[in-house]
Amino acid sequence: MACEYFTHKGVLFPCLVYSPKELSYVENEFQVRDDDIFNIAYPKSGTNWMLEILSLIRCDGDPGWVRSVLNWERAPLVESQLGLEAALKYPPPRLLSSHLPVQLFPKFLQRSKAKIIYTLRCPKDVLVSLYHFSKLLCLFKDPGSLDSFLEDFLSGNVVYSSWFDHVTGWMGLKGNENFFSITYEELQEDLRGSVRRICHFLGKELSEEQVATVVENASFQSMKGNKMSNYSQLSDEYMDHQNGEFLRKGICGDWRNHLSEAQSQRFDTVYRERMQGLGMTFPWD
Ligand code: PPS
Fold first, then answer.
1. Is 8 inside any structural domain?
2. Does the beta carbon of 191 sit less than 6 angstroms from any atom of ligand 1?
């Protein structure tokens, strides 16, 4: 059961914590509130980093909440069975996370003023991070060789399906007042400036001192040492803690240590084909 997948409207999900019933509910019936903040990203793109930043901003930089409440309770993954249960009980204003592609996202978003923060990451780094994570997370199938996983990733035969579809779908909202996108690379390059931009989008201005405590507590090292944020508390049923850590490397460009020249070129060919129509450039281009 643990490693079985199902396809819902063309998108791949693990059977263990997702079901077509909840996914349909989330898409068609989940009530979006004007004061909701959604933290959205394709898997391994910086979802939990952004979750930490948003949690800290919510508390004006005070680390009390991130040190005392598990991250998946602070911003539940709305499409998972337990995440949906938590989202429905969450007292507003809600902070919610999602990896859903835009076409499966709650329809009621369109009628609301809820804020969306979409984080993107260099897809070669996403591939490498997902490859390692697939060996840890018991919900995911063994990724096999990097060569075969590369083909699975490029064709969208991975959980949450195609990175290309996800990014092109969500970036279609760019320009909307309630949509803000940022890259993992921008967070790495200038976390302080990124936090200020996020605050501005949220309409929440923090002092320099408060921004500094957000930056300090959302660093890779702080998160790695915080058991509320490093997934060490996730049951062995879900994660093989002997095989590595969720906060693995936290750097840009790790793909260079893993992909051969041929694999990188193969990736670039598909990337060019799939991204040419988007008319946007990213830090990794
Ligand atoms: S998940 O499981 O899909 O929700 O994963 P996600 O949170 O999107 O991405 C996990 C990767 O983000 C890295 N990470 C960070 N990098 C830098 N700084 C901070 N604070 C940080 N927090 C998380 C995490 O290490 C994963 O990347 P890799 O490359 O595997 O290290």
1. no
2. no
